[in-house]
């Protein structure tokens, strides 16, 4: 398996339990030795779809020790007191905030305990599909390692190296649509007493028309704030990342647009300078497998914009589906084809919903009529 991120580690557990020999190759270092080098989206919203998959791997309990319940959205508009819009009728219908690093570590430990072999600092660099040999580059000394395989599973994320290698053998029908908006992460630390600075059991949103901030809680009593903003300003439009040239301009922008959020971020300048602007996009892929030799799942097959908080949840569902199809088919090609047929329509639906929710979160959560309608639906 290529990639020991979220999907790779979970699938490692599921496949080992079915008796498969599993080698997980990860281009980053071992997070247990060096700390987590995650890179993007520090925490994630875990929903029932993802928890269902975690339960199938007996990983739910260990993961939920790090999770914080989010009962609904807490909307910050103008000078009004923020109000909670519940996601469901009660605490049985909620989502959870989990730190990416904690989640990955828990799943890696369980994969190893189940017997998966973990290989860190080894990034896939090429594949000979005829001789079934994968080539890995060692990040520590630049050397190359050739590894024979029966089948490769690509859980190596949106920029999948396995997808690129497969594409050289078969046109996968790949298309990426990048959003005009990017994102930047900032941190709300604990308060002076070591507690949360704002309501912890909520996903906070500061909607501002064409851009917004959100904040999700972490179990060390911090929040990760994410600003979503256009990369470039179109003529006559509002602010954009390319117009905010330094930290002073960033502060001025926050003072004007997000004063209540800014007051919660004491190291604003440090965070702004340290954290890059991330790209967001949707990956559409016609073919997810190369007969019985390779298959893609998670972001490698269907990366999506994060506005429904379902990318990881969907990747986890893929893991259960692939394990189930491997149980149901005697041959790998049949299992991979059935997996693709099962999951492609679902992934496409979630990708569409994620784009739709982007528009909703951006433009409608401060819409009084909409809020009234939602309140009536929930009453
Ligand atoms: P990844 O998590 O990207 O893991 C891929 C792994 O492969 C990494 O460990 C990487 O180092 C490794 N790798 C890459 N290349 C190679 C190589 N050549 N060789 C070996 N290893 C390699 N989803 C949600 O469900 N809820 C959310 O709230 C949410 N919020 C998000 C917020 C943002 C800002 C973003 C960008 C995404 C968000 N997502 C969310 C989506 C979620 O992050 C992804 O869908 C999820 O990480 C996909 O998991 P994955 O295992 O497929 O890929």
TrEMBL record:
Signal peptide: none
Keyword field: FAD, Flavoprotein, Monooxygenase, NADP, Oxidoreductase, Pyridine nucleotide biosynthesis
Residue ranges annotated for the FAD-binding domain, each copy included: 2-166, 284-328
Cofactor requirement: FAD
Any GO MF annotation of the entry: kynurenine 3-monooxygenase activity
Domain of life: Bacteria
Gene Ontology biological-process annotations: kynurenine metabolic process; pyridine nucleotide biosynthetic process
Catalyzed chemical reaction(s): L-kynurenine + NADPH + O2 + H(+) = 3-hydroxy-L-kynurenine + NADP(+) + H2O
Protein name: FAD-dependent monooxygenase
Source species taxonomy: Bacteria, Pseudomonadati, Pseudomonadota, Gammaproteobacteria, Lysobacterales
């Amino acid at each position: 398996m290529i990639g020991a991120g979220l999907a790779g580690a979970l699938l490692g557990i599921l496949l080992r339990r079915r008796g498969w020999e599993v080698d997980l190759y990860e281009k980053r270092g071992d997070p247990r030795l060096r700390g987590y080098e995650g890179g993007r989206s520090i925490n994630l919203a875990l929903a029932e779809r993802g928890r269902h998959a975690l339960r199938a791997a007996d990983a739910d309990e260990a993961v939920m020790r790090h999770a914080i319940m989010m009962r609904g959205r807490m909307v910050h508009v103008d000078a009004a007191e923020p109000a909670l819009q519940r996601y469901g009728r009660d605490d049985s219908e909620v989502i959870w905030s989990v730190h990416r690093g904690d989640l990955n570590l828990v799943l890696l430990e369980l994969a190893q305990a189940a017997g998966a072999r973990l290989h860190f600092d080894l990034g896939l660099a090429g594949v000979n599909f005829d001789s079934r040999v994968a080539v890995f580059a060692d990040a520590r000394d630049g050397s190359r390692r050739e590894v024979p395989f029966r089948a490769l599973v690509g859980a190596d994320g949106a920029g999948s190296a396995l997808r690129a290698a497969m594409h050289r053998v078969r046109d996968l029908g790949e298309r990426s649509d990048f959003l005009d908006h990017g994102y930047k992460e900032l941190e709300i630390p604990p308060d002076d007493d070591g507690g949360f600075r704002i309501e912890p059991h909520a996903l906070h949103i500061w909607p501002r028309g064409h851009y917004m901030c959100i904040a999700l809680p972490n179990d060390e009593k911090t929040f990760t704030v994410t600003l979503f903003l256009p990369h470039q300003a179109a003529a006559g439009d509002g602010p954009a990342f390319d117009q905010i040239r330094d930290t002073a301009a960033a502060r001025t922008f926050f003072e004007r647009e997000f004063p209540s959020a800014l007051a919660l971020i004491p190291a604003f300048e440090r965070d702004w300078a340290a954290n890059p602007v991330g790209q967001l996009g949707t990956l559409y892929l016609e073919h997810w497998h190369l007969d019985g030799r390779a298959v893609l799942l998670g972001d490698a097959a269907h990366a999506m914009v994060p506005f429904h908080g379902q990318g990881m949840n969907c990747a986890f569902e893929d893991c259960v589906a692939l394990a189930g199809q491997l149980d149901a088919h005697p041959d790998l090609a049949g299992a991979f084809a059935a997996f693709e047929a099962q999951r492609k329509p679902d992934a496409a639906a979630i990708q569409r919903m994620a784009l739709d929710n982007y528009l909703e979160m951006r433009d409608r959560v401060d819409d009084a009529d909409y809020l009234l309608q939602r309140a009536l639906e929930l009453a």
